[in-house]
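Records of this kind hold a single protein each, on a pair of labelled lines. Below, a sample record shows both lines together.
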Amino acid sequence: MRVLIAVTHLLGAGHLTRAAALARAFADAGHEAMLISGGVPAPMVRLDGVRLVQLPPLKIAGTDFSTLLKPDGAPADAVWLARRRAVMVETVGTFAPDAVVTELFPFGRRALAAEFLALVEAAHASVPRPLVLASVRDILVASAKPERIAQAHARVAAFYDAVLVHGDPALAPLDASWPLDAETPGKLRYTGYVDEGTRSAVGGARAGVLVAAGSGPAGLVLLRAAAEAGRRRPELGWRILAGHGVPEAALSALARGLPEGVLGRARTDYRTLLAGAAVSVSQCGYNTATDLLAAGTPAVLVPFEAGGETEQRLRAERLAARGLARVLPEAELSADTLLRAVEAQRAAPPPGPHGIDLGGARRTVEIVATLHAGRRGARHQTRPASPGFQALRRALDAIAGRGLSVPFLWRDDDAVTATPALDRLIGLAQTRGTPILLAAIPDGIDAALARRLEMAPEMRVAVHGLAHRNHAPPGAKPAEFGADRPLSDLRADAAAGLRIARERISESILLPVFVPPWNRLAPALAALLPELGYRGLSAVPGPPIPGLRRIDATLDPIDWRGTRSLREPEAMLRALADDITRVPDRPIGLLTHHLVQDAAVWRFVEDLLAVLLGHPAVRVPDPRRLFDRSAMDRGGAAPHHPGLQIVRTG
C-alpha cells in the first residue's frame, strides 16, 4: 500500500511523534509511507524510511488554537494557508495513496478544516478512491458547543471509512471523553496505544528522579517547580529534561543554582533513563503515558490544564485509578507539593502488570491493510481482467505460442528536478524491475535531479531537446525543433542540448538519444543528429534515420486534447492488442509524463505494467543496449512499421 498521513502539531510535538511512529510502522511492514507535516519541524522525531512533505509551518501562542501563526510569530495570512492547501492536494495527485489518514481531524483542528477538507475531497476525487481514515488518540477534547460535535460526526459519515482510535478501551473508551452519536461507533477501530519508544532493560536498583516536561514551552511551570525542588533536595538525584521548544533564555534561568548536568534538553535515550529512574515526574500527554506504561516506573503526573485542557487530567486520573501513578494537579504545583508527591511515590509499592495494549502501531497497519484488501476485493476487481486486458493477454499468448516475443521500452518525458512524482516513477520501476528512458530537459536539469538519478540504477537519461520552448509560429502545433526554424538554429540547439546534458548528468546513465519536445522534429535536423554525436532517436512513429537507432513511443495514456486525464482505456488496450498481433516485432513504446499524471493515469500504467511485464512474451531490453554503438553497427535503425497510431502528445 501507499499510505499518506497528514498531521499538524501546534502546541507540543506529540501529534507528530505519534503520526511518525505510525508512518514508520507502515514502512517497516513494507508499505510506502508519506507524512505531510504542517507544524514547526521537530528535530527529535524519527522518520526512518518515511518520505516527508513539510508544509509552510504553523504554530500558536499559548493555547490559542484559533489564531494560527507563521514561524516568525506573524499571523498566517490567506496566501500562506493557500500554499499549504495546494501542496496537500498536489501530494494526493502525485503520490496516489491507497489510504489517506488525517490525524485528529475532523474531531479537532477546526481552524485547519479548509485544508483537511481539501485533502479529503482530493482523495474522494481520485480514481480509484483511496481509503479515508481518521486517526485520533485515546482521549479527545470535546467542544462545549453541540453543533461542533454534530459537525464532526457528519464529516465522519460523509467522508471517512473508519476512525482509528489509538487507545485501549479497557483504560479509556472514546466515549469517556467524546459524546458519540448512534452511527460513529460502527466506524471505530481501537488499535491499542502506539508505543513509539524502544524497550530498555536496566539492571540493578532504580535511582534518582527524572523530570520531563514535553517538547514545548507549555511545561515551564513544571520545570520551574522541579528546578526549585532540585535545589532544595539535591540528594534525591535529579535529572530535569526540557523540550527543544523551551527558549534558551528560560533554560538558563532555570539552571541557576543547580549542579551541572542536572538540567538539559530532551534526549533520544529518554526511555532508557526512564527505565532506570526511581520516580518519574511529567505531564500526562499521550506519548508520556505510553512511555510510563512500557517502563513501569513509579510516576508523579502533573497534567497540563491551561486553557481549559481536560485531556491530560482525564488520562492521569485513569492511570492513578489503576495504581499506576499519583496525580498532582497543576493548580496545586509548587516545589513543596512536588517534593511531597515524589517522597510518597518513592515509598509506595511499585506498580504491577497493567495489561494495557501497547501494540497500536502494528495493529494499525494490520487494520488498514485489512480494510484495503476488502475494499480492493469489492472494487474494480475486474480492472486487469477487463475486456481490453483480456484481449491484450490473448495477443501475447498467441505470439508466445509462435515462439515470438515483443520488446518493451518505457519512456518518461520532461524531467528537470527531483520531485515526489519522480520518486513514485522510480519506485514503480524498481517494483516492476524495469528500466526507464527518462527524457530530461537539459536547460532545466538541476543538481537535485542528478543526485537522485545516481541512486536509481533503473534510470537511463535521454536528451529532451534544449529548453522545451515552443518556437512554432502562431496557430501551428507547438514544436522546439520544427521545420519553421532555420536549420542552423536547430543544429546549434540540438548540439547544445547534448553538451549541457553531458555536463550535468553522469556519463554512466546518460545516453546520446534525442527526444524532441512535443515529439516533433524537422526531417533535415533528424538527418544531422548522428554527426552531432547522437546515436538514437525516440519520438512518435516515423521513418528510419541512417546512423540512428530509432525506437518510438506508441502508447501515451493521457488525453492531452480533452480531459488531460486517462484516455479511454478499453480503446487503447484493444489497439495495442491488434498491433501486437499484426506486428509482433515492433517495440511497445510506453510514454508517460510523471509530473502531470493524475491518479487514474498512474493506476492504468501500473495495471498495464503488471500485465505486460508478467507475460513471458514480453522482453525488456536495457535502453543502454538498444542504443549502444554495437547495436548501431549491427543494424542501424529499428524496423519501421507505420502500424499503430494511438499516441496523443502534449
